[in-house]
Structures are given as structure tokens and as C-alpha cells.
Amino acid sequence: MKKETVAICGLGYVGYPVAMLFADADFNVIGVDILEDRVKRLNAGENPIKGQEPGLDELVEKVFKVGNFRATSDMSEYGSANYIVVAVQTPVAEENKKPTYENLKGALKGIGQNMKEGVTIIIESTIAPGTMEHVVKPILEKESGLEAGEGFYLANCPERLMPGHLLENIRYYNRVVGGWTPESAEIVKKLYKNFVEGELQETDCITAEIVKAGENTYRDVQIAFANEMALLCEAYGANVWKVREFINNCKKVTETRPEALRQMHFPGAGVGGHCIPKDSWLLIHEVRDIVNPKLIPTARYINDFMPLHMYDLLKDGVKEAGKELKDMNILVLGYAYDANSDDDRNTPTVPLMGKLKENGIKFEIQDPFINDYQGDIESMLKGKDAIVVMTGHDQYKELSYEKMLKLMGKKPLIIDGRNIFNKEEAREKGFIYKGVGNI
Ligand SMILES: NC(=O)c1ccc[n+]([C@@H]2O[C@H](COP(=O)([O-])OP(=O)(O)OC[C@H]3O[C@@H](n4cnc5c(N)ncnc54)[C@H](O)[C@@H]3O)[C@@H](O)[C@H]2O)c1
């Protein structure tokens, strides 16, 4: 027998797998998205996420056999829901890094105008701390005429997932449930227990908002540290990957100390995706003028610089080869921002492309997961002077030096932004190799 109705607002990387999990837990699930073409494809049973997502195809097939998911663009459908989960995008504006909330506000308006009394509304989108109080609650109350905590329940239950591990992350990661009231948090906790095996930790909205944006900011700052270490290692003539290995090898030395692990992150060709490049800005948004934070914006600038540094490494490599940049014919490997994913939002490949274009350098792009760039890699390697590795897709790791030497031009270059080749081996075989943090 079907349980209650859950409406999922926004069927992207977050909303779609969440919808599938609710459906699999025997809820009647209505997915709402403004993209009519996506709605059509989802109703035909298509999994819209094309990267490697263990278990998702099978889950989609199972859910469609049972038939308790359907998608729509009709907002009046919110009226039948007992629970509404909001998972729309929450970008920041390019010019001032402030949240735009166009999609979030549109979604809240549609929900507020159609929701029934007693419904529970859960914001899964990542939002700037204070948004539940200053944006979400006022819009819902105005549009519905109901009061949060009285006429409806309200909570912030942010997602912690990463493309490539969507189902695993949703099912097994601990997560915070920030309730507008303790009762709201209690209801949401009970709801998510239907498929979340991780711990559901109750708190208030402001704490949950800070935890989510803060967690991604932590990662951004850590990656920036690793990137700066990479730049230092390049200048010292050291290998950042060796340095990282030794730093992270600091383990438990005595019984009284906990496992004091250092966890230096990976340096690389840049940070992308919908989340990490904007969540730092969301975190500091409301209090920026009071606190004047320095570390967090600096980390952002360091990470944004890395694709441009890839261009500098290319320039150095070309010089070492005794060639001219203008004569180079380059293959850029990777357009998605992350390995084995089809997610290309805020990809570091775009700023690199900008640099190459600006300097009139001939290049092609290959990416097995992106429709526009799925050319045959071996044909594309033919006659190329350099490869620039922007994404660590498994397919690239399988490229043999011998094959590349056969296909590419004389004295070929490897510019490695993801440490997928071995510097010593590549040089021994006759390549010019420059890697981030390892030149
Ligand atoms: N992608 C991730 O790895 C990830 C991880 C954790 C949290 N988040 C957060 O989750 C949120 C969603 O991210 P995503 O990656 O799923 O975004 P997405 O762009 O993949 O999906 C958002 C979907 O919402 C739809 N939408 C926009 N406005 C709408 C409206 N008014 N009504 C109905 N649908 C609407 C869009 O058409 C789109 O399909 C963001 O706040 C993001 O920061 C994302």
C-alpha cells in the first residue's frame, strides 16, 4: 500500500535521486520541475544523470516498474502533498557573489500558493545562513496565509551528496535537520528515516544552514591550501604529491592521543560544480560587512586561479620543448568538473578555454561524459602537440605512453592537472611533463 504523498521541487542532481529513494520507500512521489523537456524525459523513465552513479539506473528501473513516481510542471500538484522537499539551484551572481535566489523564490511562491494546511516543507537546497528566517518563511507565510510552526511545519535538511556517489551519500551520511520548531525537526527526522541510515541530528535552522555552507567552505579552504602548497612545491622543485603523502602519514603515536591525522586535500587544475565555488560566498553573505572575512575569499581566488595556472604550465612546457605556443595543437582532456561525472557546472575547463582562445591557440576538447565532446580519443590524439588533463576520468588513466607517442606529434607535452600520469615515467618515455605541484 502507498504511503503519504511527497512532492519534490527541482529534479536535478539532488532532487532526482531523492525522489527515487522516496518512491522506493513506497511514498507516492510527485516530482515538480519547471523544465518541461526534463519532465517529459523523466516520465518516460529516463535517468537524467549520465555520469557513473552506482545503483541509480537499477533504482530508476525498479521505481518505474512499481509506478509511484511521476513528474509534472504543474504547481497546483503541491496541493496534494503531505511533504514538500525543495531542491532547486541556489547560485550566486557573477558580479557581486550575492545569492540570486530566483529559482528558490519562484519555487516558494508556487508552493505557498498551493500547499495545504499541515504540510511539512523541507529545504534541501544549500542556502546562506539566515535564509530560512528572512526569505523562506516570509514567502511561504505570505503566499499561504499560514504561520510556520502552526499552519505548516518547516525545516532545513541540507544534502551532503557528491555526484558519483549520490545514492550512497544520501543513504549513509549523517545529516543535520534544522527545524523551525522542535516539532518540525522531529517530523522531518521521522520522514527521512525511511531511507537514510546515517544519523539524523536535530538542531535549529540557523545552525543547519551554517553547517552546510560551512562544510563546503571548509573543503574549499582546504583545497586552496593544497593548491598553494602545490605552487610552493613547484617553486622549490619538490613533488607536492610526495609532500602530501608524508604530511598525511602523521598517525597515532601514543595511546593517549587520538588518531591525529593530517588530511591535506588534493591540489589540482581547479574547483568546479554547482556547490563549492558558491557555498563560501553563501556562508559569508549576511555578515560580510560585519566580519570582513579574509581567509575564505582568498581561498576562492586561489582556487579560481588554478585553471589559469594550467595555462602557465603549458607555456613553460612549450618553451622547454623549444616550440612556439601559436603553433601548438592541443587536446584538452575533460570538460566535466569531476572524474567520471557528467556535471560540467562551473567547470575549470572553461577559464582554460578562455585563455587558449584569447591567445589564438588551436585546441579540441574530449570528454566521454559530455555530449558535445564525446569524440574518439585516439583519433583526437593524432598529431596533437600536447594534452592538458583537466579531469581525472578513468578513461584517461588507461592511456598508454606508447600509444600517445605513436599518435601525437614530436616531443609531446603532458600538462597534468589531476596527477594521473607519472612524471618520471613520462619523461623517460620522451614526454615533456608538467604537473600541478610537480614540475
Ligand atoms: N549537486 C550537488 O552535488 C549538491 C550537493 C549538495 C547540495 N546541493 C544543493 O542542492 C541544490 C540543488 O542542486 P542541484 O545540483 O540538484 O541543482 P540542479 O540544477 O541539478 O537541479 C535543480 C532543478 O531545479 C529545477 N527548478 C528550478 N527552479 C524551479 C522551480 N521554481 N520549481 C521547480 N523546479 C525548479 C531546475 O529546473 C533543475 O532541474 C542547490 O542548492 C545545491 O547547492 C547540491
TrEMBL record:
The keyword Transmembrane helix does not apply. InterPro entries: 6-PGluconate_DH-like_C_sf (IPR008927), NAD(P)-bd_dom_sf (IPR036291), UDP-Glc/GDP-Man (IPR017476), UDP-Glc/GDP-Man_DH_C (IPR014027), UDP-Glc/GDP-Man_DH_C_sf (IPR036220), UDP-Glc/GDP-Man_DH_dimer (IPR014026), UDP-Glc/GDP-Man_DH_N (IPR001732), UDP_ManNAc/GlcNAc_DH (IPR028359). GO terms for molecular function: NAD binding; oxidoreductase activity, acting on the CH-CH group of donors, NAD or NADP as acceptor; oxidoreductase activity, acting on the CH-OH group of donors, NAD or NADP as acceptor. It comes from the Bacteria. This is NDP-N-acetyl-D-galactosaminuronic acid dehydrogenase. It comes from Candidatus Nomurabacteria bacterium GW2011_GWE1_35_16. Belongs to the UDP-glucose/GDP-mannose dehydrogenase family. The keyword Nuclease does not apply. SMART domains: UDPG_MGDP_dh_C (SM00984). Residues 331-423 form the UDP-glucose/GDP-mannose dehydrogenase C-terminal domain. Pfam families: UDPG_MGDP_dh, UDPG_MGDP_dh_C, UDPG_MGDP_dh_N.
